[in-house]
Design brief:
The chain is mainly alpha-helical. The chain is built from six helices and no strands. It has helices spanning 8-30, 36-42, 47-64, 70-90, 98-114, 121-131. Helix 3 (47-64) packs antiparallel against helix 4. The longest helix is centred in the first third of the chain and has 23 residues, at 8-30. The chain is elongated. The relative contact order is 0.15.
Amino acid sequence: MKAGLFGKATLWFATLVASALFLLAGTQKLAASPPHPTNFIGWGYPLWVMFFVGAVETTGAILLLVPRLASFGAALISAVMLGAIVTHIVHAEWLALITPFTLLALVSLIGVSRSDLSPLPILRARRARARG
């Protein structure tokens, strides 16, 4: 059976990588590891925003690992990445835009691949069989 460009194994690999990256980033923010507090204060955000972003990243990372909840996790992380993009643009941190844009593309691809809107026939067919 043809799996398309972003097949099942590739989807899981991308999911594991994204989940690990956001779990690490989120827990670092929750632990207030340097340089996160300095960065958030420098951008003009109160420290509670750093903890909120860390909690959303951690939650999103965990949700990515549950296929039925992965689209929701990807949406949470996408919102954080859009916030990061806006922050870097406002502060003219042009090179820093590479990471959030790349991660936004990755989690968006994962979210769409795990949703009912997936263009991948193998994923749509599998979900249809699961629903009966």
